[in-house]
Write the structure tokens for this entry.
Amino acid sequence: MGLFELFLFTAVVSYISASTEVCTNSLLPGAKGDQGEIGDGGDQGKLGKDGPSGLPGVPGESGLKGEVGQAGKMGPTGDKGDKGDPGMEGPHGLKGKQGTTCDCGRYRKVVGQLDVNVGKLRNAVKFVKNVILGLRETEERYYLLVKEPKKFREASMNCKLRGGLLAMPKTINTNRLMADYVSQAGLTRVYMGVQPQSMDTDGSSTYVFADSSPLQSFVAWSQEIELTPKVSPTTNSSCVELLSTGAWAHVDCEATMFFICEFPKSSRRGGGGGGGRGTPTPASL
């Protein structure tokens, strides 16, 4: 039995060694089968991310012109234009009817009553000017003492804004009126309309009135200034003040004090169509 078993074992081993097949645990693929039927369409997938922007396209053709839009709001008023040239002279009007005879007696009585009323009105206006407003006046001008302390340049501009100029005592009577005005107001000095104009070769200043007219007919420099009538502008004391005594004196232009303005009573028109300043009203003063 031992020999037979050994022979059998040897035969089995030889068979196994001669076999080309190897036993493994993996499955080998079979032959390719036939193509199956096309299945049903699947559900729509999710949208992917936006891709990069493409290149600009070719400009399209211009569209048709649209309809006229609604009118916008009216804009602000523009600046006043220049005065136009005079137009042609128009034709003469028709001749009027002949007037009737005037009843002069009755109208004289009405005119007389009007003269009385005008006289009362003038007295009332004079009362307002002299008492309420505190004005002084001559035949040609009004004078107003402005009790607002200002430097010389500010005082000059203030008078111009009111329609006048710094008061100019061009005569002895006007100078006396202004000096009394200052004294009665309890003041000792005010700015007036005398100012330096230019420098001489020696470095001193010459003076003119506020309307640029020269000091010719009347001056009232104080006794001290008459000895040295010109002052160097480097001292900054080239402005002029009116003292309550009626004398003129130099003063620092940066000093603040009250001042007197003057206003013409009536306007005179020249041939060129220009006009002067009119009579000031209490509102403008």
About this structure: The radius of gyration is 56 Å.
